[in-house]
Amino acid sequence: MIIRKALESELPFIRDQRVLSYEEHAAKIPEGHWEALKQGITSNVDSQPGIELLVAVVDNEILGSVALFPAKIEAYEGYVEAVDYPEIRMLAVSPAARGKGVATALISECIKLSKGKGHHSVGLHTGEFMDKAMRLYERIGFERLPQYDFEPADDGIVVKAYRLTF
Questions:
Q1: Antiparallel, parallel or unpaired: β 87-93 and 121-127
Q2: Structural domain tally of the chain?
């Protein structure tokens, strides 16, 4: 598996793959929340300066992707104050590629890049309905930061904050 920076020409595929990856959650959440989530993961927010968009590739096939937002950037439309460490966002793995270490490899690369820039931690947020993702983050060593949780749609669904300190 190769982890590399995404090419601009790959953006439409990556955004479509995110929808396929997150679609399993649509039945667990209100339709309005799903539509907002889908809009967020297909927006061009991942094209802002300073954001590193990475892909995991095997045999020239993109199996997953992740966006690493730099520290002190407005990453959540005013819901959370800018933090002094990078944020992992929009981690997505093709349903067919799950269980093969793709997500762990992408997270590991985000950690490596963050360390390389002199940071001592990396954070992320995830919907409380993403049970498998939360188990993965906790297994890697991420710790909860409830003070940075937020509820974006006023529908009772909390987006939970995590941070890994190294």
A1: parallel
A2: 1
